[in-house]
Amino acid sequence: MADIIPFRALHYNPDLVGDLANVVTQPYDKITPEMQARYYGLSPYNLSRIIRRKPGAGADDGPDYSGAAQDFRDWIGRGVLVSDAEPALYVYQQEYELPGRPGERRTRRGFIGLCRVDDYSAGVVYRHEETLSGPKADRLALLEATRAHFGQIFLLYSDPEGRVERELSAAADANPWERVEDEYRGIHSLCRLPDPLLAKRVVEMMAEKKLVIADGHHRYETALAYRDRCRRKGGDPRAEYVMATFVRMETDGLTILPTHRLVHDLAGFDWMSFPGKVSRWVEVEELGADGSSARWAPGFAKRLAEAGRERPAIGAYAGPGRLALLRLRDDANLNHELADVAPGLRRLDVVLLHRLILEGALGISRQAVREEKNLRYVRELQAAVGQVDSGAGDICFLMNPTPIEAMRDNALAGDVLPQKSTDFYPKLLSGLTVYWLDNPAGP
């Protein structure tokens, strides 16, 4: 049973911070060093100073968690962050342009509330991909220092008839409480559900739902770890909950982008021998890729998408003139090769890449993948290609997006995809609402 409750959100005080675009941010794991520098320059109250903090003067290589906590408390004391007087659910709407399709816009609508942190074994919250060890340690240190959740877990629920969305629609069409345009020209609007009885109906309808994590696996597992630490110390009712945005799975406002893989620092990598290492599983069609990637990448992305509609397909690029389309062989015996992999996962591009190519052909262990020793994740195809061209990588693998149906079905069956198998776009902004566990007004 999904336990969802309204809460008294902390939020920025516009009288003190001005334009919200100067203080809210993309999620912590999407903030590059360049973005961090820009965010720091926008405002002394930009949230990156807490969630993606630079080391303090004289500090070691790690982030300054105590400094982040001090800033957070200081902002509350100054009234930069203020608390809602009454618990509420918050309707969150995002209008965005599809990457690479100028002028084509979509709308995604959900609501923000608190969700009880349940173990996966409880059959309420389901993960769909594995996690990395580093981000969880980092987020746990920040949560312990600040006692606050600054970003939301992105949870999907099934509601084919759209009953919950209909309850939210009237409030979403009212004047927004907060409205901000992000750096990708996405418009984010937030408003409180004004009627406690309406919030109660939404909570009751959601109680029967199973919830699938779309984004925020590391933060959810951090909340689990923090809850368990608090239980060992006697318990903390507020640590039993985490802040989340709930979005209907059947909405046409969902967009999943691919996440490409960059392999680096691989001893003895040789493009000439690569086709022979993978030919037992895939057909290798070598293609020309001379000149700027701006010329050939769009056409290759289209060809990769077309190939992927017929059977699993992956692109491989190892430098100018070294581009190939890899398609699963008709006679590949996946029942034998992937005997330990659930049947529902065996024909997914990302699973085949990780198990057959990264592990089987290139010898990159699952532990190395978890620790990101030889692998980086890149959203933009041309950025991945550019890193190979610059010498920052040996080879990159270019991916199609994972279908949401495959993600959903495998998650509910308890079958987990590799790390970074999906990239839901756009991200949920951090800083629109904050769940402060020590809010004296209550949760």
Protein described:
The chain has 15 helices and 21 strands. With 443 residues, the protein is α+β, with helices and mostly antiparallel strands. The chain has two domains: 265 residues, no CATH class; 142 residues, no CATH class. A hairpin with a 7-residue loop joins strand 4 and strand 5. The radius of gyration is 23 Å and the shape is globular. The model has no long low-confidence stretch (mean pLDDT 91).
Query: What's the main sheet like?
Result: 9 strands, mixed
Q: How many separate domains make up the residues?
A: 2
Name the overall outline: globular
- Please tell me how large the radius of gyration is: 23 Å
First CA to last CA: what distance? Answer: 20 Å
Mean pLDDT: 91
Q: List how many beta strands DSSP finds.
A: 21
Task: Give the percentage of residues in beta strands.
Answer: 15-25%
Count of DSSP H/I helices: 15
Helix and strand composition category: alpha+beta
Low-confidence segments, ≥5 residues, pLDDT <50?
Answer: none
Query: Approximately how much helix is present in the residues?
Result: 25-40%
